[in-house]
Amino acid sequence: MADSTPTDSVSVDMDSISPSPKEHIIRTCHGSVSVAVYGDQDKPALITYPDLGLNYVSCFQGLLFCPEAYYLLLHNFCIYHISPPGHELGAAAIDPDYPILSVDDLADQIAEVLNFFGLNAVMCMGVTAGAYILTLFAMKYRQRVLGLILVSPLCKEPSWSEWLYNKVMSNLLYFYGMCGVVKEILLKRYFSKEIRGGAQLLESDIVKACRRSLDERQSLNVWRFLEAINGRPDLSEGLRKLHCRSLIFVGDMSPFHSEALHITSKLDRRFSALVEVQACGSMVTEEQPHAMLIPMEYFLMGYGLYRPSKLSVSPRSPLSPSCISPELFSPESMGLKLKPIKTRISMEL
């Protein structure tokens, strides 16, 4: 993928995308859940679910506020950002007497959200723990999922090392709150070492913003989500039965890189694709969102959901067909190695 110059970019008034979402607090059988809705609700629905400790602002803003992503996603979808319980902006602490939800409970909450909005089948996008919840949702409610876009997803039950690591973080959250050690553990989970900084490297603005976001989380609410994820079952056996198309992104520096390879090996190869993003951690949506645009464009074209706006897209835009190499229109192209991504795709578009 060639580097973009100023003349290659799309000019968009970012204030016109959506000045503010419509926030809904929806009561379900498993407690209340916050949903932020962007866009025209007559459009096809895209639901998102973030990773542990994050919400839609800290997990998806980098992708969704790219000018090119506006045309790819916001122009064609109404986006429903579902937050894990107690992860939304300004959330209060969940009543300590309320039972801890399981991953099945969280997946069932999504079905109730769709019912509330009168949605039938939806496109899904999730990051790591959120990707696991959406995959489980797709397995339980197959008729309600058009496709899955999974970023550094989890699939198997925790290994002993991950389980122990999560238990240490869980105890720190419970007894000490969102302390410095917990924030460092989470930042390593999200980002590559290059942008986290170090002795000779400055911490990037993305990481600084995420660190500030973590300060705003209610630690016991994060603890609850972590307990659910640490008790997750293995989904491997049910993946082959999924017949919705799946597009998987993973950073090659993500601690969950092997999980993404595993889930890809278990999915039906006719309907799945893997994109490995070089020099990137788990949260591709924030660290390298531009690497997601062209793979998502071709993925969504298979549904007839992406219609380029001739009046709004520059002829030299990366999303303009005239700017895309002709070889990329053929299925054979999907095995090519593209910078800064490499693809492993055997899906028929």
UniProtKB/TrEMBL annotation:
Q: Does the keyword Ribosomal protein apply?
A: no
| Swiss-Prot/TrEMBL keywords | Membrane, Transmembrane, Transmembrane helix
Q: Where is this region: Disordered?
A: 1-22
Q: Which domain of life is it from?
A: Eukaryota
Q: Which residues cross the membrane?
A: 116-139
Q: Which Gene3D superfamilies match?
A: alpha/beta hydrolase
Q: Which InterPro entries match?
A: AB_hydrolase_fold (IPR029058), NDRG (IPR004142)
What are the Polar residues biased-composition ranges?
Answer: 1-10
What family does this chain come from, according to its entry? Belongs to the NDRG family.
- State what protein this is by name: Protein NDL2
Origin species: Cicer arietinum
Q: Which gene encodes it?
A: LOC101511661
